[in-house]
Write a structure and sequence with these properties.
CATH topology of the largest domain in chain A: Phosphoribosyl-aminoimidazole Synthetase, Chain A, domain 2
Number of strands of chain A: 14
Low-confidence stretches of chain A: none
Strand content of chain A: 15-25%
Oligomer: homodimer
Order of helices and strands of chain A: HEEEEHEHEEEHHEHEHEHEEE
Structural class of chain A: alpha+beta
Helix content of chain A: 25-40%
Number of helices of chain A: 8
Shape of chain A: globular
Number of domains of chain A: 2
Chain lengths: ~350, ~350
């Protein structure tokens, strides 16, 4: 399968040029010497424009999710766009209760982007995929002229296997259920914003970017099928937006207890300094769960026993409310509406 | 599931702003009133961050393919980026002999892009998907600042069902096999380039952009399993590049007959005027097939009986050649090497 290329890729000084996306020899060399090597697996090695893959076990359904990643800056405390692109899509698949199996990756590169940075990002993707137990089985690379892109955009699409009888989704929350959160909020958004604005805090705040499929598997193993109604990762728009989506889909109201929502002290301080409401700040390694109240304690224990759920907490409950309001009892004992994000908060956070 | 939005979307004068990608109310409104409406199907209606889908029939494998689309201009004679984004990925799935079932779509929009153009593009995608018999089941939208993108980029990812025992791929060509081409070459690239350069030809050349899954199904029904070794659509880099990929993957040589390669007279004339070799010009509705010689005539007849294969022809044969050269007997009776595309030809052609 090797071709003799005219010259080796210059991984130190080299830059992406339009030929890397033109489908000729330069493009083939980039695929061979970067993507195929980093992501190596039997399906990618087929070398076709798609991959032929084992289907999920009999009786299982498919889950499919896609996410474009345009985060700026590309490298931030705790991660980079490569790892994030794997985590984001793995998590979307896992949030339906499916086991993530395969990822496809599409790169849109800007002419002039440093090949050294691309290599770092691709290797970060490969490491994240290995850690999450998924294979990157097919991909595509395009190049746009300088000034028509922004370094690299990565769209990942995931396919997973959904066991028979499993029904987890945003529409399944019922009055009486409880709302759980897997850990502290706001780290990803604050880490990215502080990098972007060159802010220095006393303690370095790092993104929580992580794959959550392991945590989800541990949770689902701890309670009977059906006990977990909804799982969702509060990324763009944060916990507030995600809970409003669930309230809308399920036709219910939600009551939160502000004091129960876990948050690092330095994240709270940074949000105050930056004028951000942490409820709207993106997370990339946390999940919200809605569960039947009688199984909530067992679920919470399973979450706390997992490294990605150590700070898990019950933060609220589902109520009947035709207006589908998300309300919160504040630390001071008042009650306020937690509305949809209306203005812009943090663009290009993922 | 409906939310009362503060104001209606202005489809005439409105433009994409950063809020459309921020995960809040504006983003939800765009999803509700554009994507969900145009692509409507039971899986998209689930409204989650992924879709739960019926698996392929028992015994079938999965096929997965992804393609980023960055074509410029977005609208060109014979199509637009929306239809192209569906066709490109449907075809990649079909080229492995699989039946395309589902598509995921990821949009990266530039701030300031006209919502009217976005609507046209999305409706074109919906029409292309309906015609190809696939459902767009999940999606994502991001927005980047003005000057950090170029209108819209669309990554589509397809999943298909591959019947038991089917093995079609670039590595399966064997000496003695024949090479078939489904129709005339070069229309897509020439149509896009003429639009880009504002060239006018006497006869309007239109892109051949089309889904080929119907043609593939007709071909595979006409010959025994195994007779078709390889299918591939000669997009970026054209017929020459695709044949070099097949030669490389299969470890064989290919001999082409230039006189047998179908081409419209005005495409040949335009290529001469533009200094392009039509063998390297992108197609978006054509396929190359490598097949066992004893079934070649039956396959050719099946291709010609299908609307997308009317001009199909046998254009060459597979030979043993460790150097994996693609050679061509020219119209004048000489022989030349058809090498990989080395320099840049047409960037952003798909």
């Amino acid at each position: 399968m090797k071709t003799d290329y005219q010259r080796p890729i210059d991984w130190r000084q080299g830059r992406v040029d339009l030929n890397h996306g033109a489908g000729g020899r330069a493009a083939a060399q980039l695929v061979d010497e970067l993507f195929a090597r980093a992501f190596d697996n039997e399906w990618l090695r087929q070398g076709d424009d798609g991959a032929a893959l084992p289907a999920p076990p009999p009786g299982h359904r498919l889950v499919m999710a896609t996410d474009g990643h345009v985060i700026s800056p590309l490298f931030f405390p705790g991660g980079d766009i490569g790892g994030l692109a794997v985590h984001g899509t793995v998590n979307d698949v896992a949030m339906l209760g499916a086991t993530p199996l395969y990822l496809a990756a599409s790169f849109i590169l800007e002419e002039g982007f440093a090949l050294a940075e691309l290599k770092t990002i691709v290797e970060s993707m490969a490491a994240a995929a290995r850690e999450a137990g998924v294979a990157i089985v097919t991909g595509d690379t395009k190049v746009v002229e300088r000034g028509k892109g922004d370094g690299v955009f990565i769209t990942t699409t995931g396919v997973g296997a959904l066991p028979p009888g499993r029904a987890i989704g945003g529409a399944n929350a019922r009055p009486g259920d409880v709302v759980l959160l897997s850990g502290t909020i706001g780290e990803h958004g604050v880490a990215v914003l502080s990098q972007r604005e060159s802010l220095e805090f006393e303690t370095r705040i790092v993104s929580d970017t992580a794959a959550l499929n392991g945590l989800v598997a541990a949770m689902l193993a701890a309670v009977p099928e059906g006990a977990v109604r909804t799982l969702r990762d509060p990324t763009r728009g944060g916990v507030a937006t995600t809970l409003n989506e669930i309230a809308r889909q399920s036709g219910v109201g939600l009551h939160l207890d502000e004091a129960a929502i876990p948050m690092q002290a330095q994240v709270a301080a940074a949000c105050e300094l930056l004028g951000l409401d942490p409820l709207y700040v993106a997370n990339e390694g946390k999940l919200l769960a809605v569960a039947a109240s009688e199984h909530a304690e067992a679920l919470l224990a399973a979450m706390r026993a997992h490294p990605r759920g150590r700070d898990a907490a019950i933060i609220g409950r589902v109520v009947a409310d035709e207006r589908r309001f998300v309300q919160m009892t504040t630390r001071l004992g008042g009650r306020r509406i937690v509305d949809w994000l209306s203005g812009e908060q943090l663009p290009r956070i993922c």
